[in-house]
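FAQ: What does the model actually see?

It sees only this:
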Amino acid sequence: MGTRTEISQLPPEADLARADSLAREIFSDVANKWAFLIIEFLGQRTMRFSELRDVIGGISHKMLTQNLRMLERNGLVERQVYPTVPPRVEYTLTEAGESLRGVVDGMCTWTQRYLGHIEASRHRFDAD
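And it is asked to produce this:
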């Protein structure tokens, strides 16, 4: 939620319970492997639906659609429809999405750094 200093600087009418609930809801939405991959790829460039589906191995049409809609609803992805026949639709990250990409990149860096440690711990745990 924030440090004590950050919380103390909020206006008295701030609804901390609502903010905490919203944070948990957003984390639940975006903390899945497909959303992370979509954020990562859209952070590289604007893409069409079919391009995203091609670069994200194993994602179904339905799952990509659901995740793009969720990311758009949360203000992380912008959908641009061009009036052509057939309609051309492109997806790009918003400023908030770009900011979240920094967090995702940090998590990926952390994973790479501790991969050996995690694998060794799992092996020891599973051997018991």
